[in-house]
């Protein structure tokens, strides 16, 4: 199998239904989703299969959903069917609630780090935010209906999931989260509310 085609040597790339410049907003957005997917794959290699089976199941599902979302952004056909729907967002919200009930109570901003896997999840979180910003730019510059808004909503929720997952990874490993020393108390957790 020959994986090189030479068709992109002049700065153009094929998308579903056409060709665009490699620095097109669309390519920047789905390319960043591809980068994010690779970082999540790296995080998965750092998680123990027994201790983190639930997170590994989540992350594998997320990798497939990211592939769907990237494909949706790469699709410029007149008649198109988007793969990523709202249901995975709702499922992710439920998982975030479960993870945050396990995570230690927060008051201040948390610095990325702790265990290697948590640090990698924080990197994934920041790349998710970049992918979201690029998708917002794409949405603003595209004709109405040319870009699925579900991808932006999915990425917004995914950054929250990755934050919660990083907290839980550190908690299960007994590694404390490092708080930003000049942070005000910015979080009011449900655990704290329950104590009142």
TrEMBL record:
<dbReference type="GO" id="GO:0009236">
    <property type="term" value="P:cobalamin biosynthetic process"/>
</dbReference>
<comment type="subunit">
    <text>Homotrimer.</text>
</comment>
<protein>
    <recommendedName>
        <fullName>Corrinoid adenosyltransferase</fullName>
        <ecNumber>2.5.1.17</ecNumber>
    </recommendedName>
</protein>
<dbReference type="GO" id="GO:0005524">
    <property type="term" value="F:ATP binding"/>
</dbReference>
<dbReference type="GO" id="GO:0008817">
    <property type="term" value="F:corrinoid adenosyltransferase activity"/>
</dbReference>
<keyword id="KW-0067">ATP-binding</keyword>
<dbReference type="InterPro" id="IPR036451">
    <property type="entry name" value="CblAdoTrfase-like_sf"/>
</dbReference>
<comment type="pathway">
    <text>Cofactor biosynthesis; adenosylcobalamin biosynthesis; adenosylcobalamin from cob(II)yrinate a,c-diamide: step 2/7.</text>
</comment>
<dbReference type="InterPro" id="IPR016030">
    <property type="entry name" value="CblAdoTrfase-like"/>
</dbReference>
<keyword id="KW-0169">Cobalamin biosynthesis</keyword>
<feature type="domain" description="Cobalamin adenosyltransferase-like">
    <location>
        <begin position="3"/>
        <end position="168"/>
    </location>
</feature>
<comment type="similarity">
    <text>Belongs to the Cob(I)alamin adenosyltransferase family.</text>
</comment>
<keyword id="KW-0808">Transferase</keyword>
<dbReference type="InterPro" id="IPR029499">
    <property type="entry name" value="PduO-typ"/>
</dbReference>
<dbReference type="Pfam" id="PF01923">
    <property type="entry name" value="Cob_adeno_trans"/>
</dbReference>
<keyword id="KW-0547">Nucleotide-binding</keyword>
């Amino acid at each position: 199998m020959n994986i090189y085609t030479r068709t992109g040597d002049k700065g153009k790339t094929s998308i579903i239904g056409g060709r665009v410049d490699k620095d097109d907003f669309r390519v920047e957005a789905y390319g960043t989703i591809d980068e994010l997917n690779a970082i999540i794959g790296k995080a998965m290699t750092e998680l123990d299969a027994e201790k983190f089976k639930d997170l590994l199941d989540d992350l594998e599902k997320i990798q497939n959903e990211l592939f769907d979302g990237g494909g949706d952004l790469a699709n410029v056909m007149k008649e198109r069917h988007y793969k990523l729907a709202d249901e995975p967002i709702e499922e992710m919200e439920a998982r975030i609630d479960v993870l945050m009930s396990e995570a230690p109570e927060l008051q201040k901003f948390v610095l990325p780090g702790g265990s290697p896997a948590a640090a990698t999840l924080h990197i994934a979180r920041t790349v998710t935010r970049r992918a979201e910003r690029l998708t917002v730019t794409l949405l603003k510059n595209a004709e109405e209906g040319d870009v699925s808004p579900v991808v932006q909503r999915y990425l917004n929720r995914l950054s929250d999931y990755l934050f919660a997952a990083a907290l839980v990874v550190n908690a299960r490993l007994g590694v404390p989260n490092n708080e930003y020393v000049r942070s005000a108390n910015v979080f009011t957790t449900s655990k704290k509310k329950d104590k009142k």
